[in-house]
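Duplicate of earlier report; Response regulator input re-posted below.
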Amino acid sequence: MKKILIVDDEPNIVMALEYTFKKNNFEVFIARDGQEALNILEVQLPDVIILDVMMPMVDGFATLEQIKKDERLRHCKVIFLSAKNKEKDIEKGLSLGANLYVVKPFSIKKLVEQVQDLIQ
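Output:
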């Protein structure tokens, strides 16, 4: 079973994504900010991380920088899922090493397809 870590501070998005990915046979882990995500990543090695940019404590950009420093997480695919839709934000996310940058609002169906494509 593939593992996915969803990192977002918006409960409605987290609930919708958790439900959808569980239905698609993923083991789902949830973090509500970057620090919580980093704590989970100390014990879990997901295949995919869906990461919001704007969060309390540690934002998504800083979280990704920490993820990229960890050898154990080298195989993880990272998708930014953010309302920050300016070109410079998207470029920053991709330059930090994200595999994809998806702008909110988004299609859950399309996001699931993008995740499936990344991990095949």
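The mean pLDDT is 97.

Merging into the original ticket.
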